[in-house]
Amino acid sequence: MSDTKKSKDAEDILSEFHDNALPEDEPKLPSPEDEPKLPSPEDEPKLPSPEDEPKLPSPEDEPKLPSPESKNNDVEDRDVIFVGTKPIMTYVSATLTQLSTRSTVTIKARGKRITQAVDVSQMIVKRMNTVGYVISDVRILSDSLMSQDGKLRNVSTIEIDITKN
Alpha-carbon distance 163 to 140, whole Å? Predict the structure, then answer.
């Protein structure tokens, strides 16, 4: 076969494919024009700018509430340590920490914890005697509390003030 005949046969084959653009068993692919259009950024709703947001009042604008310490006129610089179920040394270290910055610290306890409050105060005064901590005041009170069964009960309370001598 000659080269011209080969090229003529190839052209005939190609022309057959072009004439029968797509056979019936092949699926038709969508054209780019058929694709759905996505909204453009200009079509999106606009969010309010930060300038439109309402301004919150600053902490300087808020009214000042009186502190619980300001109600007590005899000692203005006082902090309170409430004795609970933790180990005694926890309350000793908390009291000593407060005494480093405050002039007076009050140890407060109710009911069964009164003995622990006394132990805390004695550990500070007796073991830290070189520093000069002293018990300046002791107040024994009774609080009326509602129990779980709905009865009014009296609970003993102690407040021990410790100051640096």
Answer: 18
Provide the CATH number for the domain around residue 115.
3.30.110.20
15, two tokens: 């022309």
CB atoms within 10 A of CB 13: 9
pLDDT per residue of the chain (165 residues) written in tens, 0 to 9: 555 555 567 777 767 666 555 555 555 665 656 566 666 656 666 666 555 555 555 555 555 545 444 444 444 556 999 999 999 999 999 999 999 999 999 999 999 999 999 999 999 999 887 888 999 999 999 999 999 999 999 999 999 999 988
State the Cα–Cα distance between residues 135 and 106, nearest whole angstrom: 10
Largest CA distance in the chain: 126
**Count of structural domains within the chain:** 1
Q: How far is CA 141 from CA 37, 69, 155, in A?
A: 80, 19, 8
Residue-range definition of the domain harbouring residue 93? 78-164
Q: How far apart are CA 146 and CA 154, in angstroms?
A: 9
